[in-house]
Design a protein that fits this description.
Length: 119
Amino acid sequence: QVLLVESGGGLVQAGGSLRLSCAASGSIFSINAMEWYRQAPGKQRELVASITTSGGITDYADSVKGRFTISRDNAKNTVYLQMNSLKPEDTAVYYCHAEPRLGIVYDYWGQGTQVTVSS
């Protein structure tokens, strides 16, 4: 089992910054990658960024490239999402997700953290 606890959301003006954190505990060895998703009202949940736990390979949605940075601290089992130059369209609930290693099947999510960007 993997437990994911997010923090760091809030209200910020357009152009501002926020940093989200996701602390993982439990079967850490089973995680292949950590991902940040977001879901705005009336929209589908979308993948924002991901980072592999071993090689630190990152990937981003086109809508956040150049503005968001995902990073990890393996010693703390924590993944961060630094969000700069925030836009009103970034407003959503942000969720942390653990992608399991090959051969392992599970679907663990954090509780979500609200990010609201005012214009």
